Amino acid sequence: MSKETTIAAPAYPDDPEDSGISVAALERANMGRRIRVLRNRLGLSQIEFAETFGIPANSIRQYEIGRYMPPPAVRAYLKVIEAEPDKVRQVIAAG
Fold this sequence. Notes:
Blueprint: E1 7-9, E2 21-22, H1 23-41, H2 46-53, H3 57-64, H4 72-83, H5 85-94
Antiparallel strand pairs: 1-2
Helix pairs in contact: 1-3, 4-5
């Protein structure tokens, strides 16, 4: 079974409009939360975060709402930003 088909949280049985949450959807949601927390910790809007770190604003939006999982290279970059945001800014500014 794939992460998209493996259910992490079943649908609420008394709500006919509810559906189960896949493992992949839960992972996307958790990643989106991490990005939002990081961005808020840095005091940046989505646009400011995107412009500061060179990630398209639309991608930041999509990641934060859990629609898409960032590709591995972006996830690695986000970890570096999380650990050393000032260093990343310096490197970017040095061009």
